[in-house]
Protein backbone atom coordinates (compact mmCIF):
# COMPACT_ATOMS: atom_id res chain seq x y z
CA UNK A 1 0.00 0.00 0.00
CA UNK A 2 1.34 3.49 -0.85
CA UNK A 3 2.58 5.66 1.98
CA UNK A 4 0.27 8.55 2.81
CA UNK A 5 2.48 10.66 5.08
CA UNK A 6 -0.33 12.55 6.82
CA UNK A 7 -2.38 9.39 7.48
CA UNK A 8 0.06 7.95 9.99
CA UNK A 9 -2.31 6.44 12.60
CA UNK A 10 -0.06 7.98 15.23
CA UNK A 11 -0.87 10.68 17.81
CA UNK A 12 0.84 13.48 15.94
CA UNK A 13 -0.42 16.35 18.03
CA UNK A 14 0.60 18.34 21.08
CA UNK A 15 -2.02 19.62 23.51
CA UNK A 16 -0.82 22.98 24.82
CA UNK A 17 -1.55 24.33 28.31
CA UNK A 18 -4.38 26.53 27.09
CA UNK A 19 -6.16 23.61 25.42
CA UNK A 20 -5.64 21.41 28.50
CA UNK A 21 -7.27 24.14 30.59
CA UNK A 22 -10.13 24.50 28.09
CA UNK A 23 -10.72 20.74 28.12
CA UNK A 24 -10.98 20.95 31.91
CA UNK A 25 -13.53 23.74 31.58
CA UNK A 26 -15.48 21.67 29.06
CA UNK A 27 -15.55 18.70 31.42
CA UNK A 28 -16.78 20.88 34.30
CA UNK A 29 -19.53 22.35 32.13
CA UNK A 30 -20.60 18.90 30.89
CA UNK A 31 -20.85 17.71 34.51
CA UNK A 32 -22.89 20.76 35.48
CA UNK A 33 -25.18 20.42 32.46
CA UNK A 34 -25.69 16.73 33.16
CA UNK A 35 -26.69 17.36 36.77
CA UNK A 36 -28.85 20.46 36.27
CA UNK A 37 -32.57 19.67 36.56
CA UNK A 38 -34.54 21.04 33.62
CA UNK A 39 -38.29 20.94 33.16
CA UNK A 40 -39.20 18.27 30.56
CA UNK A 41 -40.86 20.76 28.22
CA UNK A 42 -37.83 23.04 28.29
CA UNK A 43 -35.46 20.09 27.80
CA UNK A 44 -37.46 19.03 24.72
CA UNK A 45 -37.25 22.58 23.42
CA UNK A 46 -33.47 22.66 23.95
CA UNK A 47 -33.05 19.32 22.16
CA UNK A 48 -35.24 20.48 19.27
CA UNK A 49 -33.16 23.64 18.84
CA UNK A 50 -29.96 21.61 19.07
CA UNK A 51 -31.01 19.13 16.38
CA UNK A 52 -32.21 21.88 14.05
CA UNK A 53 -28.98 23.86 14.46
CA UNK A 54 -26.90 20.73 14.02
CA UNK A 55 -28.70 19.68 10.84
CA UNK A 56 -28.62 23.19 9.41
CA UNK A 57 -24.93 23.62 10.19
CA UNK A 58 -23.54 20.31 8.94
CA UNK A 59 -25.43 20.59 5.65
CA UNK A 60 -24.68 24.31 5.24
CA UNK A 61 -20.95 23.57 5.30
CA UNK A 62 -21.55 21.51 2.15
CA UNK A 63 -23.59 24.25 0.47
CA UNK A 64 -27.15 23.62 1.70
CA UNK A 65 -28.98 26.95 2.01
CA UNK A 66 -32.07 25.98 4.04
CA UNK A 67 -32.69 28.26 7.01
CA UNK A 68 -33.56 27.12 10.53
CA UNK A 69 -37.10 28.37 9.90
CA UNK A 70 -37.43 26.15 6.82
CA UNK A 71 -36.03 23.18 8.75
CA UNK A 72 -38.63 23.74 11.45
CA UNK A 73 -41.28 23.65 8.74
CA UNK A 74 -39.91 20.30 7.57
CA UNK A 75 -40.12 18.93 11.11
CA UNK A 76 -43.72 20.11 11.30
CA UNK A 77 -44.46 18.08 8.16
CA UNK A 78 -44.78 21.02 5.79
CA UNK A 79 -43.59 20.79 2.20
CA UNK A 80 -41.05 23.25 0.85
CA UNK A 81 -41.02 24.41 -2.77
CA UNK A 82 -40.05 21.71 -5.31
CA UNK A 83 -36.82 23.59 -6.09
CA UNK A 84 -35.67 22.95 -2.52
CA UNK A 85 -36.62 19.28 -2.32
CA UNK A 86 -33.06 17.98 -2.67
CA UNK A 87 -31.82 20.26 0.10
CA UNK A 88 -34.84 19.28 2.20
CA UNK A 89 -33.97 15.60 1.79
CA UNK A 90 -30.36 16.28 2.82
CA UNK A 91 -31.61 17.85 6.04
CA UNK A 92 -34.21 15.12 6.68
CA UNK A 93 -31.43 12.55 6.42
CA UNK A 94 -29.30 14.31 9.03
CA UNK A 95 -32.23 14.81 11.40
CA UNK A 96 -33.14 11.13 11.05
CA UNK A 97 -29.51 10.16 11.65
CA UNK A 98 -29.31 12.35 14.76
CA UNK A 99 -32.48 10.86 16.20
CA UNK A 100 -31.44 7.28 15.39
CA UNK A 101 -28.06 7.76 17.06
CA UNK A 102 -29.69 9.39 20.09
CA UNK A 103 -32.11 6.48 20.48
CA UNK A 104 -29.38 3.87 20.05
CA UNK A 105 -27.06 5.49 22.59
CA UNK A 106 -29.85 5.96 25.14
CA UNK A 107 -30.77 2.29 24.69
CA UNK A 108 -27.18 1.31 25.47
CA UNK A 109 -26.09 0.53 21.91
CA UNK A 110 -22.63 2.12 21.89
CA UNK A 111 -20.50 0.25 19.36
CA UNK A 112 -16.82 0.78 18.71
CA UNK A 113 -15.70 2.44 15.50
CA UNK A 114 -15.97 -0.05 12.62
CA UNK A 115 -16.35 -0.19 8.86
CA UNK A 116 -19.99 -1.17 9.30
CA UNK A 117 -20.62 1.86 11.52
CA UNK A 118 -18.97 4.23 9.03
CA UNK A 119 -20.98 2.71 6.16
CA UNK A 120 -24.18 2.91 8.20
CA UNK A 121 -23.64 6.62 8.88
CA UNK A 122 -23.00 7.28 5.19
CA UNK A 123 -26.13 5.33 4.24
CA UNK A 124 -28.14 7.71 6.42
CA UNK A 125 -26.44 10.75 4.85
CA UNK A 126 -27.18 9.65 1.25
CA UNK A 127 -30.66 8.19 1.68
CA UNK A 128 -33.05 9.04 -1.19
CA UNK A 129 -30.73 11.66 -2.69
CA UNK A 130 -30.68 10.07 -6.14
CA UNK A 131 -28.09 10.71 -8.82
CA UNK A 132 -27.22 14.22 -7.66
CA UNK A 133 -25.53 12.58 -4.69
CA UNK A 134 -22.26 11.47 -6.25
CA UNK A 135 -22.00 8.21 -4.32
CA UNK A 136 -23.91 5.02 -3.59
CA UNK A 137 -25.02 5.33 0.05
CA UNK A 138 -23.00 3.02 2.26
CA UNK A 139 -20.54 1.98 -0.45
CA UNK A 140 -16.91 3.06 -0.76
CA UNK A 141 -15.91 4.91 -3.91
CA UNK A 142 -14.67 2.85 -6.85
CA UNK A 143 -12.54 5.53 -8.46
CA UNK A 144 -9.87 8.03 -7.55
CA UNK A 145 -10.91 11.61 -6.94
CA UNK A 146 -9.42 15.05 -6.42
CA UNK A 147 -10.95 17.43 -3.86
CA UNK A 148 -9.74 20.93 -4.63
CA UNK A 149 -5.96 20.62 -4.44
CA UNK A 150 -6.14 17.49 -2.31
CA UNK A 151 -5.79 14.02 -3.79
CA UNK A 152 -7.29 11.47 -1.35
CA UNK A 153 -5.88 7.93 -1.14
CA UNK A 154 -6.34 5.47 -3.99
CA UNK A 155 -9.78 3.86 -3.85
CA UNK A 156 -8.18 0.41 -3.65
CA UNK A 157 -6.63 1.35 -0.29
CA UNK A 158 -9.79 2.68 1.36
CA UNK A 159 -10.88 -0.47 3.15
CA UNK A 160 -7.42 -1.24 4.53
CA UNK A 161 -6.96 2.36 5.68
CA UNK A 162 -10.31 2.38 7.47
CA UNK A 163 -9.57 -0.97 9.09
CA UNK A 164 -6.31 0.46 10.38
CA UNK A 165 -8.14 3.57 11.60
CA UNK A 166 -10.65 1.47 13.55
CA UNK A 167 -7.85 -0.65 15.03
CA UNK A 168 -5.92 2.45 16.06
CA UNK A 169 -9.01 4.09 17.59
CA UNK A 170 -9.66 0.97 19.67
CA UNK A 171 -6.10 0.61 20.94
CA UNK A 172 -5.14 4.24 21.41
CA UNK A 173 -8.41 5.60 22.83
CA UNK A 174 -9.62 2.36 24.50
CA UNK A 175 -13.29 3.34 24.95
CA UNK A 176 -14.33 -0.11 26.12
CA UNK A 177 -11.72 -0.03 28.91
CA UNK A 178 -12.63 3.49 29.96
CA UNK A 179 -11.27 6.79 28.77
CA UNK A 180 -10.84 10.27 30.18
CA UNK A 181 -13.02 13.16 29.08
CA UNK A 182 -10.09 14.70 27.20
CA UNK A 183 -9.47 11.42 25.36
CA UNK A 184 -13.12 11.32 24.29
CA UNK A 185 -13.07 14.83 22.86
CA UNK A 186 -9.74 14.30 21.10
CA UNK A 187 -10.92 10.97 19.66
CA UNK A 188 -14.06 12.58 18.24
CA UNK A 189 -12.03 15.33 16.56
CA UNK A 190 -9.30 13.02 15.27
CA UNK A 191 -11.87 10.57 13.85
CA UNK A 192 -13.57 13.44 12.05
CA UNK A 193 -10.31 14.56 10.42
CA UNK A 194 -9.22 11.04 9.45
CA UNK A 195 -12.52 10.37 7.66
CA UNK A 196 -12.02 13.65 5.80
CA UNK A 197 -8.46 12.62 4.88
CA UNK A 198 -9.28 9.09 3.74
CA UNK A 199 -12.36 10.39 1.91
CA UNK A 200 -13.87 6.91 1.55
CA UNK A 201 -17.01 7.94 -0.34
CA UNK A 202 -17.69 9.77 -3.56
CA UNK A 203 -19.86 12.31 -1.73
CA UNK A 204 -21.04 13.01 1.81
CA UNK A 205 -17.68 12.52 3.53
CA UNK A 206 -17.87 15.70 5.61
CA UNK A 207 -21.37 14.95 6.88
CA UNK A 208 -20.34 11.37 7.68
CA UNK A 209 -17.25 12.61 9.54
CA UNK A 210 -19.29 15.06 11.62
CA UNK A 211 -21.92 12.40 12.36
CA UNK A 212 -19.13 10.15 13.64
CA UNK A 213 -17.83 13.00 15.79
CA UNK A 214 -21.36 13.54 17.13
CA UNK A 215 -21.72 9.82 17.89
CA UNK A 216 -18.42 9.57 19.79
CA UNK A 217 -19.23 12.58 21.98
CA UNK A 218 -22.78 11.39 22.63
CA UNK A 219 -21.61 7.85 23.38
CA UNK A 220 -19.34 9.20 26.12
CA UNK A 221 -22.05 11.26 27.82
CA UNK A 222 -22.25 14.56 25.96
CA UNK A 223 -25.75 15.95 26.77
CA UNK A 224 -28.14 15.50 23.87
CA UNK A 225 -29.15 19.17 23.85
CA UNK A 226 -25.47 20.13 23.36
CA UNK A 227 -25.09 17.84 20.36
CA UNK A 228 -25.02 20.63 17.76
CA UNK A 229 -22.07 22.50 19.18
CA UNK A 230 -19.16 21.43 16.99
CA UNK A 231 -21.09 21.36 13.69
CA UNK A 232 -22.49 24.78 14.49
CA UNK A 233 -19.01 26.09 15.33
CA UNK A 234 -17.47 24.70 12.15
CA UNK A 235 -20.22 26.31 10.09
CA UNK A 236 -19.95 29.70 11.84
CA UNK A 237 -16.17 29.68 11.33
CA UNK A 238 -16.13 27.96 7.95
CA UNK A 239 -12.99 29.68 6.54
CA UNK A 240 -11.03 28.70 9.67
CA UNK A 241 -12.46 25.18 9.52
CA UNK A 242 -11.18 24.63 6.01
CA UNK A 243 -7.88 26.41 6.72
CA UNK A 244 -7.13 24.21 9.74
CA UNK A 245 -8.22 21.10 7.86
CA UNK A 246 -5.99 22.04 4.92
CA UNK A 247 -2.97 22.72 7.15
CA UNK A 248 -3.39 19.45 9.04
CA UNK A 249 -3.59 17.64 5.69
CA UNK A 250 -0.32 19.19 4.50
CA UNK A 251 1.58 18.60 7.75
CA UNK A 252 -0.11 15.57 9.29
CA UNK A 253 -0.05 17.50 12.59
CA UNK A 254 -3.44 17.83 14.30
CA UNK A 255 -2.32 20.16 17.11
CA UNK A 256 -3.89 23.33 15.70
CA UNK A 257 -7.08 21.65 14.51
CA UNK A 258 -7.63 20.10 17.95
CA UNK A 259 -6.97 23.45 19.69
CA UNK A 260 -9.39 25.18 17.30
CA UNK A 261 -12.14 22.57 17.79
CA UNK A 262 -11.77 22.46 21.60
CA UNK A 263 -12.09 26.25 21.79
CA UNK A 264 -15.28 26.07 19.73
CA UNK A 265 -16.60 23.24 21.87
CA UNK A 266 -15.99 25.28 25.04
CA UNK A 267 -17.63 28.40 23.59
CA UNK A 268 -20.66 26.36 22.57
CA UNK A 269 -20.97 24.72 25.99
CA UNK A 270 -20.83 28.16 27.62
CA UNK A 271 -23.69 29.33 25.40
CA UNK A 272 -25.79 26.28 26.29
CA UNK A 273 -25.02 26.83 29.98
CA UNK A 274 -26.04 30.49 29.72
CA UNK A 275 -29.32 29.49 28.07
CA UNK A 276 -30.08 27.02 30.86
CA UNK A 277 -29.07 29.52 33.55
CA UNK A 278 -31.48 32.02 32.03
CA UNK A 279 -34.28 29.46 32.19
CA UNK A 280 -33.43 28.71 35.84
CA UNK A 281 -33.65 32.42 36.65
CA UNK A 282 -37.01 32.64 34.89
CA UNK A 283 -38.30 29.64 36.87
CA UNK A 284 -37.11 31.17 40.16
CA UNK A 285 -38.62 34.54 39.32
CA UNK A 286 -42.02 33.13 38.39
CA UNK A 287 -42.03 31.07 41.58
CA UNK A 288 -41.12 34.14 43.64
CA UNK A 289 -43.96 36.15 42.08
CA UNK A 290 -46.52 33.41 42.77
CA UNK A 291 -45.21 33.07 46.33
CA UNK A 292 -45.48 36.83 46.89
CA UNK A 293 -49.09 36.90 45.74
CA UNK A 294 -49.94 33.81 47.79
CA UNK A 295 -48.31 34.86 51.06
CA UNK A 296 -47.52 38.57 50.78
CA UNK A 297 -49.40 41.43 52.42
CA UNK A 298 -51.51 42.63 49.52
CA UNK A 299 -53.41 45.93 49.58
CA UNK A 300 -56.24 44.55 47.44
CA UNK A 301 -58.55 41.89 48.80
CA UNK A 302 -60.13 41.30 45.40
CA UNK A 303 -58.75 38.11 43.84
CA UNK A 304 -59.41 39.39 40.32
CA UNK A 305 -57.34 42.52 40.94
CA UNK A 306 -54.45 40.57 42.42
CA UNK A 307 -54.49 38.11 39.51
CA UNK A 308 -54.33 41.03 37.07
CA UNK A 309 -51.34 42.52 38.88
CA UNK A 310 -49.61 39.16 39.05
CA UNK A 311 -50.11 38.63 35.31
CA UNK A 312 -48.71 42.10 34.66
CA UNK A 313 -45.40 41.44 36.42
CA UNK A 314 -45.19 37.91 34.99
CA UNK A 315 -45.35 39.40 31.48
CA UNK A 316 -42.49 41.85 32.02
CA UNK A 317 -39.20 40.99 30.28
CA UNK A 318 -36.18 40.02 32.38
CA UNK A 319 -33.52 41.90 30.47
CA UNK A 320 -34.90 45.35 29.65
CA UNK A 321 -37.09 48.12 31.06
CA UNK A 322 -40.50 48.94 29.60
CA UNK A 323 -42.38 52.21 29.36
CA UNK A 324 -45.77 52.91 30.90
CA UNK A 325 -47.23 52.90 27.38
CA UNK A 326 -45.76 49.50 26.54
CA UNK A 327 -46.42 47.75 29.82
CA UNK A 328 -50.05 46.86 29.14
CA UNK A 329 -49.24 45.68 25.61
CA UNK A 330 -46.76 42.99 26.63
CA UNK A 331 -49.20 40.21 25.87
CA UNK A 332 -52.54 39.80 24.14
CA UNK A 333 -54.09 38.84 27.47
CA UNK A 334 -52.88 42.04 29.15
CA UNK A 335 -54.12 44.18 26.27
CA UNK A 336 -57.61 42.69 26.58
CA UNK A 337 -57.59 43.10 30.37
CA UNK A 338 -56.48 46.74 30.43
CA UNK A 339 -58.22 48.12 27.34
CA UNK A 340 -61.30 49.17 29.32
CA UNK A 341 -59.46 50.24 32.48
CA UNK A 342 -58.41 53.80 33.34
CA UNK A 343 -54.89 55.17 33.55
CA UNK A 344 -55.38 55.52 37.30
CA UNK A 345 -56.04 51.78 37.58
CA UNK A 346 -52.87 51.01 35.64
CA UNK A 347 -50.93 53.38 37.89
CA UNK A 348 -52.35 51.76 41.06
CA UNK A 349 -51.34 48.34 39.77
CA UNK A 350 -47.81 49.52 39.05
CA UNK A 351 -47.48 51.23 42.44
CA UNK A 352 -48.58 48.03 44.18
CA UNK A 353 -45.94 46.05 42.29
CA UNK A 354 -43.34 48.64 43.34
CA UNK A 355 -44.51 48.40 46.98
CA UNK A 356 -44.18 44.61 46.82
CA UNK A 357 -40.63 45.19 45.51
CA UNK A 358 -41.35 43.17 42.39
CA UNK A 359 -40.55 46.02 40.00
CA UNK A 360 -38.60 49.27 40.20
CA UNK A 361 -38.96 52.61 38.42
CA UNK A 362 -35.60 53.31 36.79
CA UNK A 363 -36.60 56.64 35.19
CA UNK A 364 -39.74 58.62 34.59
CA UNK A 365 -42.46 56.12 33.66
CA UNK A 366 -39.96 53.36 32.82
CA UNK A 367 -40.04 50.17 34.86
CA UNK A 368 -38.20 46.87 35.10
CA UNK A 369 -38.33 43.78 37.27
CA UNK A 370 -36.44 44.11 40.55
CA UNK A 371 -32.98 42.84 39.66
CA UNK A 372 -31.93 42.99 43.33
CA UNK A 373 -34.32 40.13 44.13
CA UNK A 374 -32.62 37.99 41.49
CA UNK A 375 -29.13 38.99 42.68
CA UNK A 376 -29.97 38.14 46.30
CA UNK A 377 -30.95 34.63 45.20
CA UNK A 378 -27.44 33.98 43.87
CA UNK A 379 -24.71 32.49 46.09
CA UNK A 380 -22.80 35.12 48.04
CA UNK A 381 -19.16 35.67 47.17
CA UNK A 382 -16.38 38.05 48.11
CA UNK A 383 -16.41 41.40 46.35
CA UNK A 384 -13.52 42.16 44.02
CA UNK A 385 -11.22 44.91 45.28
Automatic annotation (TrEMBL):
Tree of life domain: Bacteria
Keyword annotations: ATP-binding, Nucleotide-binding
Stretch forming the signal peptide: none
Annotated positions binding ATP: 203-210, 241-242
Pfam families assigned: Fic
Residues of the active site: 199
Entry protein name: Fic family protein
Annotated organism of origin: Leptospira koniambonensis
Amino acid sequence: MPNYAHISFKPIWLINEKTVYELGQCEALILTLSETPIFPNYRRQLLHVSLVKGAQSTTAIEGNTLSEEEINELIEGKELSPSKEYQAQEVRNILEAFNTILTQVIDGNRPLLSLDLIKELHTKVGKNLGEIFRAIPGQFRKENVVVGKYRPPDHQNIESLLNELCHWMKNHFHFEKGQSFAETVIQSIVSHVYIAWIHPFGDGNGRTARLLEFFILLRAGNPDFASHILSNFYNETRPEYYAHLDKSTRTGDLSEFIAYAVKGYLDGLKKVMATINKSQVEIFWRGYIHDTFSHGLLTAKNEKVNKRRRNLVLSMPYDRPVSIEEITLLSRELTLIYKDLSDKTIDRDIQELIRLELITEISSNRFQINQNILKKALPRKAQKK
